[in-house]
Amino acid sequence: MHLLEAEELYRFFHKGEEEVKALRGVNFTLGAGEMVALMGPSGSGKSTLLACLAGIDEPDGGSVKAMTVSMTRKPELEKTRLRAAYFGTLLQKNNLVGHLTILENICLAQSILRQPDVSRAQEILKRVGLGQRSESWPAELSGGERARAGLAIALANSPPILLLDEPTGEVDAATEENILSVLQELARQGTGLVIATHNPAVAKAAQRTIRMRDGKILDV
What we know:
By secondary structure, the chain is of the alpha/beta class. The protein has a single domain, classed as Rossmann fold. The protein is 33% helix and 28% strand. The protein has a six-stranded mixed β-sheet. The chain has a four-stranded antiparallel β-sheet with strand order 2-1-4-5, covered by helices on one side. Helix 3 runs parallel beside helix 5. The protein starts with a strand and ends with a strand.
């Protein structure tokens, strides 16, 4: 069974009279324990694909299934429930609630499915190298720290699928190595990961690299 399946995904945006074809017939599958690097130039469709896979954005055509359950053309409340159960997502922005501490952000994510577990939330923060920042506000973090805090939130409910947009952005070499080690360990435990990145180190750590350009997958 595939953890994630996308079939013939299309997504169009309009800027004035211009139509931008962000996704053009994308097919994709993700297996358990598979770590996939999604690469391509800015504007190639990587972030749009992640958003459609997670049900954050609705494709104009095609379908997405997570754990054999359809994510497309569902009421928003149902998609939110499915997303909380199946996905951990790290986007390039809007991962953190500004008026909550980093620890409170993780507990908020946990509360969607279950009673918040503060000790587990603290352990996740230690895992991504933010153990000393649990009581910090998002505005007090650097760009790299915010990315790691977003990753911690993505891990809050131990999801079977992780969709991560530039998780190693704005971090130093030692932190990058630590993050990749965490992601590889998750893959060994059976988590499926799709990582949009420009970083060759992420592609080297992944089992499979997919390249995109102009809304299409070039090779698998």
